[in-house]
Amino acid sequence: MRAVRGVLITCDSAVKQILLTLDERPGQSFIIEDLDEFHVLVRADEEQRVRRELEAELEKNTYSMEA
Amino acid sequence: MPTADGTTDDQQEHRLHALLPFLQTQSQTSLTRLYQRPSSCLSIFRLLGAVERQLVMNLLWLDLPIQTSTMSSWVTREGKALFDDALASLARLHFLSNNSAIKLGLSTTFKTSMRHAITGGGTSVSFGVPAEPDENRSAPSIDALDAYALERWETVLHYMVSSGTGQTPIKPSQGVLFLLQRSGLMAMNQGQLQITSSGFQFLLHTPHSQLWELLLQYLQMVEERQMDLVEVLSFLFMLSTMELGREYSIESLSDTQRAMLEDLRDYGLMWQRRASSRRFSPTRLATTLTSSLPPLPTATSTGGAKDQGFIVLETNYRLYAYTDNPLQTAVLNLFVTVKWRFPNLVVGAITRESVRKALLNGITADQIISYLTTYAHPQMRKNRPLLPVTVQDQIRLWELERNRIKTQEGFLYTAFASQADYEYVLNYARQLDVVLWENAAKRCFFGSVEGHTNIRGFIERRTGGSGG
Asked: Which InterPro entries would you find in this protein's record (chain A) (predicted)?
């Protein structure tokens, strides 16, 4: 029996794919375990960084009408 | 008699006033002291919902309590829940005499005072003592009082809204600043007061609820300042029954109430010529405390005091706000991209960026929508629904977009020796209601932080037990 401390992220599958991609960047791995299609376990101290980077990644998918 | 006719107006009116929960937490002794003042009884009565008011009026002139069964036989079956709620709420306010399960009657103190309030008479000076007319100086006009109240109130709000923008608006008094900080609407940040997310939410409320929100905070602080809560409350209620434009004398006020004068002047609830003046005039903010009339005249000089609406929102996200009020412009700026400003018109658009900025500040989509609804231009009122559905939906979608992921801290329990082991521990965790995710195939589950100590203890006891 083992208990691993971490943060459970619940998300949709699209976001999970982005998280997996972010995790593959060299030296920035944060995923402890890939649980299932909608859940991943990540390191607690990385939560804020992951949120920021995910935000930045999602932001690339939008465009603005403002000139 | 109290029956529910489920019209929307009724339901809106039935929404509990913010002060009532506070009163209901007070002791019976304090409330009874408060009810010795007719003005307090009348004011609280005005804050009640329609059904409660109806019940009080029915009971008021009965000399003897009435059988509870008689009263409830007048209630239709659909109205039963409403009736019971109303009775419970009256009982919590200690309006009813104690044995309300069998017989219904108003408590003696409340009944006497309420009768006084309605019929006049009695020598209590709870409605305030008008000051003798001063031959040298005339009383301030209603316009002057309105202007004063508005200026005070907008100073506070304007200070809040521009605290993050680097502008330096006029500072409200120290007392107001302290109150804003205590209520969590503003917080110290790098030596400067900055508006907080609840502060942003506060800005979108109606003036009436803003005022009560601050006053409730004031009431919370009363005991720390060693003031008598009953005195404070009854003074507020006294103000709320006073006549706008009339001067009152401070002679009949207690020491506590005189000490409040300064605070209330700061909030714009009353006006005094000098701090040492023996008379005071309540402003519209004070006299409408317990009424449904708008507490502030509209700031715009257009004169239409009744309609507060000034916002036109189109399906193409364009927004036209007919206002020359810097405060309203600043509030709109929280969630609108302003394109043009004219002397009496602000044109902007609701964009993804502007809404995102608002969401980042802690404002919710519902608050934006309710602000737009509250201040919709009369022209918009013809529309059904009031706001374009596309815009409403999009604002909500933008909010959802920010919540793509949900994070919960905790522990992943894994590598169980056997299926039985796994199920045993999982069952225990389920009983604690701390399981956030589980997967039987992988034989692991995720529990919240709160449950960890218990689960660890459970496993240790178990392994210890099986070992020994």
From this structure: TFB5-like_sf, TFIIH_TTDA/Tfb5
- The pTM for the full model equals 0.72
Judged against a pLDDT cut of 80, whether residue A14 lies above it is answered with yes
Instruction: Please give the class, per CATH, of domain A7-59.
Output: alpha beta
Residues of chain B whose pLDDT is less than 50?
Answer: 1-14, 299-306, 467-468
Q: In chain A, what are the domain boundaries?
A: 7-59
How far is residue A10's CA from residue A16's CA, in Å, rounded to a whole number?
9
pLDDT at B393: 94
Which residues on chain B place their C-beta less than 8 Å from a C-beta of chain A?
Answer: 337, 351-353, 401, 404-417, 421, 425, 436-437, 439, 442, 444, 446, 452, 455-456, 459
Nearest to B404 among A15, A47, A64 (CB): A15
Question: Can you tell me the ipTM of this complex?
Answer: 0.86
Q: How many Å apart are CA B301 and CA B297, to the nearest integer?
A: 10
Find the CB nearest A8 among B410, B425, B459: B410
How much is the average pLDDT of A21-39? 89
- Contact criterion met (CB < 8 Å) for A62 and B414: no
Q: Which residues pair with A4 in a beta bridge?
A: B412
Rounded CA separation B352/B358 (Å): 10
* Interchain contact, B452 vs A3, CB within 8 Å: yes
pLDDT for residue B205 = 84
Whole-angstrom Cα distance, residue A18 to residue B453?
34
Interchain CB distance below 8 Å, B352 and A62: yes
- Chain A residues whose CB is inside 8 A of the B439 CB are 35-36
Q: Which residue in the set A5, A35, A54 is minimally distant from B411, CB to CB?
A: A5
Ordered by where they begin, the domains of chain B are 8-119 (no CATH), 142-287 (no CATH), 311-401 (no CATH), 410-467 (3.30.70.2610)
On chain B, the residues whose CB falls within 8 A of the CB of A2 are 413-415
For residue B365, CA distances in Å to B333, B369, B403 come to 15, 6, 12
Q: What is the reported pLDDT for B15?
A: 64
End-to-end CA distance of chain A: 57
Chain A closest-CA separation from residue B153 CA (Å): 35
